[in-house]
Each structure stands twice: as C-alpha cells, then as structure tokens.
Amino acid sequence: FVDKGKDFGSDSVKMIPSVNVAILSGEPTSTLSFGEIWHFFEQQLGYPVTVLDTEYFSNIDLSKYHVLILPEFWGSLDDSQTKKVKDWVRNGGKLIAIGDALGSLTGDDGFGLTRKEIKKDSVNTNVNTEAYAGVARDYIKNMITGAIFKAKVDVTNPLAFGYGDTYFTLKLSGDAFELLESGNAVYLEDNAKPFSGFAGSEAQKKQGNSIIFGTKREGRGQVVFMVDNPLFRGFWENGKLFFVNAVFAVGNR
Question: Residue 127 forms beta bridges with which residues?
C-alpha cells in the first residue's frame, strides 16, 4: 500500500511483457555508443541483451528478437544489412536507432526520415577570400560541440511516459531531421536556441521545428528515432527513461 496514488500490485499497475533485445556491434558501429548501451543494460537495468556482430549479421535469424538497437555509426550499413533490418521491422520488429545511425534510415530507401538542410539563400556561395585565420571560425558556425536545448514533449506518446511537457536535451551534433507526420514525442520548436553551451550560428538555423525523439509505425513493426543520444557517457540521467520506454513501452505486444 502507498500513502498517495495507486497501490503497487493493484489493477492500476500493469505488467510489462518481457522482450528479447539485441544490440548491433562491429563495424561501422561506434564502440563508445555500443558500450554505453551494453553498460546500461548490464549494470543499471540488469536485463539480458544479445550482442549481434555485423561480421555474421547476415546469418542471424532476427525473428528471435523483438527489439534491435542500432548504436551510433561511423559510416552506414551495407545494402543487404539495411534490407534485412527493414524486412524484419515490417514483419513486426521494433528498431531503435540512435544518433548517426539515423542516416541509414532516411529517404525513400529507409523509413522516410528527412535530414534538415540549411536553405541555400542563408549560405554564402561566393568564393572564400577570407583570411586563413578566419577559416576555423567559419567552420565552427556549422557545429554543435555540446549544447543543451529545451524541447517540447508530447506526453500522450508512449515514448514520453513519466515525463512532463518539457525536456532538456543534450546536443552533440549540428545534424537535424524534419518533424514526422505524426509520432513526434520530443521536438524543438521554431527558432530554438541553446539553453546552455555552444551552438554555431548556421547549425542553429537547422534546429527549429526538428525532431529529437519520435516513433513511426512501419508495416507491423515500429521504428524509434533518437536523434540525440539519451545514454551519452551514462550521465544524462533524465534521458534514460526515454530509452527504457523505447524498449519496453512503445508498440508493446
């Protein structure tokens, strides 16, 4: 019994079905991102997870797994790997993609995610006659090396269970993606500015009306997009529940 709210063990507390979770490892995945995910399952959740290496990924029967997690990439999956993942999702699997891994899911050949680009009229197309000392300053305009943005949360989305209507997200890249037609669980509003930290002026132009976390139904399965890494170095505590919701709450069987 509890002093306030619903009693544990009552009909108001629902059981979470167990799921078989796999993490992709090996090239081109980032060892750092893979380690963050593996550590989270092993040391914090205490929940079993299977590691699948890209060297033998083509021989794996993905139908044994309910959830597949793609860590951040230094590159992209090859065509056969991408097709295998897409077919598995459309047959009922749930894919969670983090950070740079989203690059493999864009466009008509992916899951319809669209990368945001700076409008051409906002970029100087003239020949660069700037002094050598100014090149670095111009380059960093397109970068976000570490900044906190205040984002909006759709509290009705299962991915946002347990959150209020705002979330402070840690951005480590200037990459941005267009809002989905639906399923935008966390997103930046127009003219978004960093709450803290550095974001280059050109990189900031792409952040307004962009997705942070979102969900999309694909065939009989689900895709969870996580533009910003909620498990970065294991210290961004307020993002960990989003990741748990992605694994256990979104598209529950």
Answer: none
What is the pLDDT at residue 45?
A: 94
Encoded tokens for 61 = 């029967």
Structure letter (DSSP) for residue 220: T
C-alpha distances out from residue 140 to 57, 96, 148, 201, Å: 38, 30, 17, 9
- pTM given for the model: 0.87
187, 250, 157, 33: CA torsion to nearest 10 = -20
Q: How far apart are CA 48 and CA 160, in angstroms?
A: 23
Distance CA(232)–CA(40), nearest Å, equals 10
pLDDT digits (tens, 9 = 90+) for 200-229: 788 888 888 999 999 999 999 999 999 999
Give the CA dihedral 184, 248, 163, 172, nearest 10 degrees.
-60
Phi and psi dihedrals of 177, rounded to 5?
Answer: -130, 145
- CB of 109 closer than 8 Å to CB of 85: no
CA triplet 198, 161, 116: central angle to 5 degrees?
A: 40
Of the CA atoms within 13 Å of residue 45, those in its CB half-sphere come to 20
Which H/E stretch holds residue 52? Answer: strand 50-53
